[in-house]
Design brief:
This protein is an alpha+beta fold. It is built from five helices and three strands, in the order αααββαβα.
């Protein structure tokens, strides 16, 4: 995947790709970033609607695909399916026991989430860094 990501970035910043750091290419890149924001809203709506019980707002705000020092990720692959695992804090404050909610979106939303995490999000991060925008 690393080589294909390099190819993607080269192609995006080539004359055919149309992205640039200045001028019309920068405008095109900014439009792409806005379209990605719209895509994320649709993706979260898909997760909300297709993973059995509707999600709480706090759950979808904290979709993490990578571990950090402070908090672990909550996107997992199990038996070829993408799972979203959320800890429910309200129950743990009373009983000191953790309560987890596992969400499994439908296959279409699952695939869109995978493609977003594997390709779109890293490219958006690169584009934001290249354009020197705040993240």
């Amino acid at each position: 995947m690393q080589d294909s990501f390099k190819l993607l970035t080269r192609r995006a910043f080539s004359k055919e790709g149309g992205f640039a750091l200045h001028g019309k290419g920068k405008e095109r890149a900014l439009r792409y970033l806005k379209q990605c924001d719209k895509f994320v809203k649709h993706l979260l709506a898909g997760i909300h609607l297709t993973s059995s019980m509707p999600a709480r707002v706090e759950e979808l705000r904290v979709v993490r695909w990578a571990d950090s020092r402070a908090v672990p990720r909550n996107v997992f692959v199990y038996n070829g399916r993408l799972l979203l695992v959320f800890m429910y804090n309200k129950a743990s404050t009373r009983s000191n026991n953790s309560f987890y909610i596992v969400r499994v979106p439908c296959l279409g939303v699952e695939r869109a989430l995978f493609l977003y995490l594997a390709w779109i999000r890293p490219f958006v991060n690169l584009l934001i860094r290249q354009l020197k925008l705040s993240n």
